[in-house]
Specification:
The chain has 2 domains: 113 residues, no CATH class; 99 residues, no CATH class. By secondary structure, it is α+β, with helices and mostly antiparallel strands. It contains 6 helices and 6 strands. The relative contact order is 0.10. α1 packs across α3 and α1 crosses α4. The strands form 2 sheets. Strands 1-3-2 form a 3-stranded antiparallel beta sheet. A hairpin with a 2-residue loop joins β2 and β3.
Length: 238
């Protein structure tokens, strides 16, 4: 299994993410509740067991308090409840089967690249020394924008189109031709573009556009213009 990320005792969701990553990418595709508890215990996240004390050392736990063993078990059980809720919420889109004492992958990570990418991107923030996983204008950036395109489609129910750079396969390369192509997808009339664009323009800051559907695509339609900020300094692009 992978090393644990930086965790606080309240980071149940982050620990559940780590369990998913271990099941999805490493080993035989399963992680047992007991094995996960052993990792938490070995990491000392919730304190040392009384049995781990050297002879003569004093435990400062009250006799009626939860032991660290109890706390570890409870921590992992709550994480398993989180995983169970994810399985219920995502249904067939969830690439794992969850039982009371085990998580098992149903698909390889190659079969669910979008899920894998978002999981790694989110969890990597909890590891030191990782600045960025997705550089702008790369194949990885395109995959991320395709995930945003599909997510926007699911959220608003209307037409969603990726316009970002690198250019979509089959699209023209000149900026004016690309804008006209976008207009075709969105059923919009494109105004005269002479003097409004430059030959070296790429996506002009627009990565994904989505139309909120009200049952028609006529006047007063709402569009969501989205920029997908990636790279080390992504926060400055917001």
């Amino acid at each position: 299994m992978f090393d644990l990320p930086e965790l606080a005792v309240t980071d149940i969701g982050r620990f559940a993410d780590w369990v998913e990553l271990c099941a999805l990418i490493s080993g035989d595709g399963t992680v047992s509740l007991a094995d996960a508890a052993d990792v938490v215990q070995d990491a000392g996240l919730l304190g040392n067991r009384r049995a781990d004390l050297y002879p003569g050392d004093v435990s400062f736990l009250d006799d009626d308090a939860f032991s660290p063993d109890d706390a570890t078990e409870r921590f992992v059980e709550i994480a398993w409840q989180d995983l169970t809720q994810r399985a219920l919420a995502q249904g067939k889109g969830y690439p794992f089967a969850i039982t009371n004492d085990r998580i098992e992958r149903l698909s390889s990570w190659q079969e669910v690249p979008a899920f894998t990418m978002l999981l790694i991107m989110d969890l990597s923030r909890a590891y030191t020394g990782i600045d960025t996983l997705v550089e702008p204008n790369t194949v990885s950036a395109r995959l991320f924008e395709k995930i945003v395109e599909a997510s926007l489609q699911g959220l608003i129910g209307g037409t969603s189109v990726r316009f970002g750079d690198p250019i979509e396969p089959g699209w023209p390369t000149r900026i004016n031709d690309r804008i006209r192509k976008l207009g075709e997808f969105l059923d919009l009339s494109v105004e005269r573009l002479e003097g409004k664009t430059r030959p070296r323009d790429k996506d002009r800051g627009l990565d994904v556009v989505g139309r909120l559907s009200f049952g028609d695509d006529g006047p007063a339609t709402i569009f969501f213009l989205t920029q997908c900020a990636t790279g080390k300094n992504w926060k400055t692009e917001r």
